[in-house]
Amino acid sequence: DQQVKQNSPSLSVQEGRISILNCDYTNSMFDYFLWYKKYPAEGPTFLISISSIKDKNEDGRFTVFLNKSAKHLSLHIVPSQPGDSAVYFCAASEGGSSASKIIFGSGTRLSIRP
Amino acid sequence: EAGVAQSPRYKIIEKRQSVAFWCNPISGHATLYWYQQILGQGPKLLIQFQNNGVVDDSQLPKDRFSAERLKGVDSTLKIQPAKLEDSAVYLCASSKPGLATQETQYFGPGTRLLVL
After folding, report:
1. What would the pLDDT profile of A23-33 be if each residue is shown by its tens digit?
2. Measured between beta carbons, which residues in chain B are less than 8 angstroms from residue A52?
């Protein structure tokens, strides 16, 4: 049973436009959400997070939106740049400490077209 | 600051053979994780250590997988005997313990295992 779902395996966006990556979760106990970015042959790297007490968190070109009632979150990247081409994992946990187990989605491969 | 180190980077073995992976976490990180990432899926936690004690190994297939972190620093993950479905990337991650919500796990580059 997938508790964190990323239904789009891939997404192609033109450079300079907005990229929107979506994620749904089923476990209502999740209260901390993260996005990781992964380049080939490297491990995932943390990108941005959001606590369930917020509905938006922004960090430069990256913004994460959380809709708790819909159990949905999205990552917006604007403007999209070639270096953003990577696999993006949505993840969730109960509690935001480093001891909390993180459940990952299956990832969305983002390709930025010139 | 050096990142999480893993070796080997690639390993090809035949089914029923054994294999071991090594991980050295970031200095000072007491929490260490091993994840399995099968192609097309997200990383799945296999085992979590706090210093040299196991915090969570609920998803570790204990009949064939074992892991240890004897001195609370580096760690070894072993598979014996390997099955075809064990083909995956094995990721090690580490973090500092604590309650700060901005703390995250730092991942190593992974070991790509192919079982033939």
Report:
1. 999 999 999 99
2. none
